[in-house]
Amino acid sequence: MKRIILMLVCVPFLFSTQCDDDDNYCPDETSETESLESLYDCMNTKYQMDIDLADDFMVIQDQETFDNLVTGSCMPDIDFSTYNLLIGKQGLTSGNTSILYFLNRNICISDQWELTVQFNQNATAEAPNLTYHALITNTINPDDIGVNIIIN
Predict the structure, then answer these.
(1) For residue 88, how far is the Cα from the chain centroid?
(2) Could you read off the pLDDT of 73-124 as tens digits, one per residue?
(3) What are the tens digits of pLDDT across the range 42-78?
(4) How would you label 108-139 residue by residue, b for 16+ Cβ within 10 Å and e otherwise?
(5) CA-CA-CA-CA torsion for 100, 71, 88, 128, nearest 10 degrees?
(6) DSSP string, the chain
(7) CB 90 within 8 A of CB 146
(8) How far is CA 94 from each of CA 80, 83, 119, rounded to the nearest angstrom?
């Protein structure tokens, strides 16, 4: 009789722990980004820095490429032994208040990292073509980085 009671108590418990939804939980992995403003005291790079792109991005991995492709009022010697520079341009239909950056990936779905670039807009009538950028650790393969643009 004790065996039957023990089985009636234990069997449902075993099934419930085996089928727990948390076993399928797969959180996003995040990575920090830096900016030319924070590391090299550049100012207002969204307006003061330029690269010949249109609604696109590229990853720069060395100083020579940076010096040849990027122009502007702040041209630092970037520590490419630590970072790669993801840089892009985005045309907008109204003025910009700020740009936010989020770098993450879901390793259960893909090895692809995604830099979300969120443009927070305002009601002014200007239509800027802004430069965005993020310094990303060079331990992340540049071929494994995509960009997701959000315009608020």
Answers:
(1) 13
(2) 999 999 999 999 999 999 999 999 999 999 999 888 888 999 999 999 999 9
(3) 999 999 999 999 999 999 999 999 999 999 999 999 9
(4) eeeeebbbebebeeeeeeeebebbbbbbbebe
(5) 70
(6) -HHHHHHHHHHHHHHHHHT-GGGG--PPEEE-EE-HHHHH----HHHHEEES-SSEEEEE-SHHHHHHHEEES------TTTEEEEEEEEE-SS-EEEEEEEEEE-TTT-S-EEEEEEEEE-S-S---EEEEEEEEETTS-GGGEEEEEEE-
(7) no
(8) 34, 32, 10
For residue 148, the Cα-to-chain-centroid distance in whole angstroms is 8
Distance separating alpha carbons of residues 32 and 91, to the nearest angstrom: 25
